[in-house]
Write a structure and sequence with these properties.
The chain has about 180 residues and is mainly alpha-helical. The longest helix has 23 residues, at about 20-45. Helices cover about 45% and strands about 10% of the residues. It has helices at about 20-45, 50-60, 105-115, 125-135, 145-160, 165-175; strands at about 80-85, 95-100, 120-125. The model is unreliable at about 165-178 (pLDDT under 50). The relative contact order is 0.14. The protein contains 6 helices and 3 strands. The chain has one domain.
């Protein structure tokens, strides 16, 4: 019989194409492995599942290779509007936030919405104000903007297409194929 738990993990929208150059593909794969190992270790230590979810998602949000937190897909205007939600499977309580531009870990703020308010969802200025009230770590918006996501937005605008994480890289790879 198994351990009684399983982990499903993804790094956001899109995939990691095998034809992606190793200098771009390997760091993404290593980050996912690190997140998976972190989650397994926490579950093996009998941490509550909600704590494990938050821990792993925070790690993804802190990694610039994915489209959450640092490395977020940018709006057309080149700004960051992050979102996150979390749900407790036992109680069915949930919390969600969106429109964040300074909160380091959106998932942790979503959890605070779930646990400390009568609300399910807070957005934009209200969510940012709640983050400050709760003492949640915030940083300047530039923290979330990487050269890679700026370049991704530039290519999407140039191609006049909706920006998807990795979509432009996949398109470039497929056009390079003989």
């Amino acid at each position: 019989m198994g351990k009684g738990w399983a982990i499903a993990l993804h790094g956001g929208a899109g995939d990691i194409p095998l034809m992606l150059p190793p200098e771009k593909r390997i760091p993404r794969e290593e980050a996912l492995r690190r997140c998976l190992d972190l989650g397994i270790a926490a579950l093996n230590d009998n941490k509550p599942p909600l704590d494990v979810v938050e821990l792993v998602v925070r790690e993804l949000e802190n990694c610039p290779h994915f489209n959450a937190g640092r490395g977020s897909v940018l709006t057309y205007a080149g700004t960051v509007e992050m979102e996150a939600c979390i749900m407790d499977g036992k109680t069915k309580m949930c919390g969600a936030v969106s429109g964040l531009s300074t909160v380091v870990n959106a998932v942790s703020l979503a959890r605070l919405v779930m646990e400390k308010t009568q609300h399910i969802y807070l957005g934009f200025d209200g969510a940012e104000a709640f983050a400050r009230e709760q003492g949640v770590e915030t940083v300047d918006t530039c923290h979330f903007i990487t050269s890679e996501n700026v370049e991704r937005l530039r290519r999407a605008k140039e191609a006049n297409q909706v920006q998807e994480h990795q979509a432009v890289e996949r398109q470039q790879l497929s056009t390079r194929q003989p």
